[in-house]
Amino acid sequence: MQTTYIETQQISFQDFKNQILEDYKLGRVSREMSYLGRREVLTGKAKFGIFGDGKELPQLAMAKVFKDGDFRSGYYRDQTFALAVDALTVESFFAQLYADTSVEREPASAGRQMNGHFATRSLNADGSWKDLTAQKNISSDISPTAGQMPRLLGLAQASKIYKSVTFEGSEKFSKGGNEVAFGTIGDASTAEGHFWETLNAACALQVPMIVSIWDDGYGISVPTMKQRAKADIAEMLSGFQRKEGEFQGCEIIQVKAWDYPALLDAYARAEQFARVESIPVVVHVIEVTQPQGHSTSGSHERYKNEERLAWESQFDGLVKFREWILNYSIEIDGKEEVLATAEELDAIDDEAKKKVKAGQKTAWESYQKTITDLVQSVLPLVENLKGQNSEIEGFIGQFNKLVSKAKKDVFQLVRKALLATRGSDSQERNQLMQKYQEIFEVEKDNYSSHLYSQSQWKAENVKEIRPVYSDGSEEVDGRVVVRNNFDRIFEKYPETLVFGEDAGNIGDVNQGLEGMQEKYGDVRIADTGIREATILGQGIGMAMRGLRPIAEIQYLDYILYCLQGMSDDLATVQYRTKGGQKAPVIIRTRGHRLEGVWHSGSPMAGILNLSKGILVLVPRNLTKAAGFYNTMLQSDDPAVIVECLNGYRLKEKQPDNLGEFTVPVGKIEVTKEGSDVTLVTYGSTWRIVMEAAEALEKIGISAEVIDVQSLIPFDLTHEIAESVKKTNRLVVIDEDVEGGTSAFILQQILEKQKAFRYLDSDPLTIAANDHRPAYASDGDYFSKPSADDMVEKIYAMFNETNPQKYPAIS
């Protein structure tokens, strides 16, 4: 079991002195990074800067209780902490400021995130997991205020789960559940709902979590008193304070940001509560200063009066730390011992400035060399074309006049030269074209890779295993198929767990998890409160720590509560770390056609457009859904699987190979062959399309019906285009609003698959009305496409081309 900071503090005075001076030095290095970073922005060498000056002392104290295996989920001002846990160097700090695309020089995001967004690399180059217990871990930061909080809950809960769950390889992720998850947030962001939902859930679940609130009294320029019901967040949270003997609530510790010994004590106590007793803790750090204001976008002198600015100068944490060091003395064996003299601290200050300047210089030169090498590889090839077009010399002249060159300037020069020499087949132009293609592939990888998994475990690599049926295969309700498949999953994968509203005790509202909690326990099959954002957050955090969570959102309509986390966090995890982290969460939900404004929605267009980076799977029945779960549990991509809400009581033949059969992602299925028109659909609407296709058959129109099955990825082998090539007509039928998913599908088929070449009629989309569906079956009939709508609109296509054979209906 890991020891805590309190248990390791019997040290000599010399060791104590060394620790203090190391902290002072690190604090000064961090401050100089902030100062120089701001100058680099204001002199035009970087675009934007946001820094952690003023927060050095509390972050140094927090770092002392941060152990190997622990995780941080924070926000973009924790540079001192990142330095203290060796997740950041001076060089990598400036590399990120310059947006250097080298993973080696900028390992947090390879230039994909603005400065101050920190991350450690959880994955090896091949996408396999590192031993996370052997390193200090930072889950990749995001900018949306409080957006990091739901993920924090899952990171903390994983420790609690690992106390009772083990599996092959679990030793890479936890040592008996002794890890703590640390969260950081600015005080103004505690006004966000994500903060309250996360803290509420943590207090209910009793997870080992420490949340630090950096309270500088402002949210950019808006004072705290205008942010919350009370200026003092600790006072507001007093109702969360746990009572002795109860397993609810949290501990609340308030401490001043400039009081070094009090900070050490506060974090030592916080660690003891969290690591030993699994009690969530809030550390409210007050009287924080922000010497350079919010960011390089403006000055805090615009909204802070002279009195406040004078106070901030006096109570700057590093100023107070220096005072404390100089005033500290102790008598040991009759001799007065001091920590340092003013001259010694001055020397440390000078050393910090030199260290930061040297690191900045190295980072800038490395970044510039990338561009210089690019120029040197391209410019001679462009110059070789000067004789082919008189404009090229002017392009080169404009390029050479640029004081500072970026990659885009090089690419613009090359593309202008290629455009000017179009039609030429000279050796010189071909050499430039070849070089352009070569450097374009490099930058495509730098800026556009890893939106989805690129490892051997990516979903596209999971082989299809078809369902096996025999004479003894039973006809059962669809919910029985998915339930029995889950049974095999939980037996086969001990790292898999599911949680959501009503998922545990009653086996979900549609009985798809019936009996699972009784069989596998309430750790793996768990009920949650009504809090969709943190249900998703639980999934993200757990998945980042090697578990395979299935986060259940009771209805598709309610997924909107967690869409922000899906879009800003989950969908970007692999992208924003360039393959350094992953979170293979499966989001289980149910929806589509049923009854009521909030139980029959199909907000698929929102999910598609806002969640690129998450697979979107839309099975037409529960057997297909079960197959997708089996597929995704072999993959390291995150996915949302939308079960058909009206399919749980419909009969399906249960496969004999439950838990084994898979449905491939990105593969369509032709469920009815035809020769006159291709009908493309998905989910619950498929049944109605099949009904319409049979009706069309009776009036002489042979319709081919295609179930998309997977919206992201979409028809990877372009089979739909082959169908259109045969039928020469295309209809996309969808229960989303006009211009929603149908527009996406149409774009994929016509533009990507080039199926427009085969059309004899305008492509047609049949979608729902733009309003939410009205209640009951009549509401569905008049709100969403019915079989009658489909038959009439498809028939009209044929009436237009051959009115004699297909006379108008009305």
TrEMBL record:
InterPro entries: DH_E1, THDP-binding, Transketo_C/PFOR_II, Transketolase-like_Pyr-bd, Transketolase_C. GO terms for molecular function: oxidoreductase activity, acting on the aldehyde or oxo group of donors, disulfide as acceptor. Keywords: Oxidoreductase, Thiamine pyrophosphate. Pfam families: E1_dh, Transket_pyr, Transketolase_C. Its cofactor is thiamine diphosphate. The keyword Oxidoreductase applies. Residues 476-650 form the Transketolase-like pyrimidine-binding domain. The keyword Oxidoreductase applies. SUPFAM superfamilies: Thiamin diphosphate-binding fold (THDP-binding), TK C-terminal domain-like. E1 component of the 2-oxoglutarate dehydrogenase (OGDH) complex which catalyzes the decarboxylation of 2-oxoglutarate, the first step in the conversion of 2-oxoglutarate to succinyl-CoA and CO(2). This is Transketolase. It comes from Chryseobacterium hagamense.
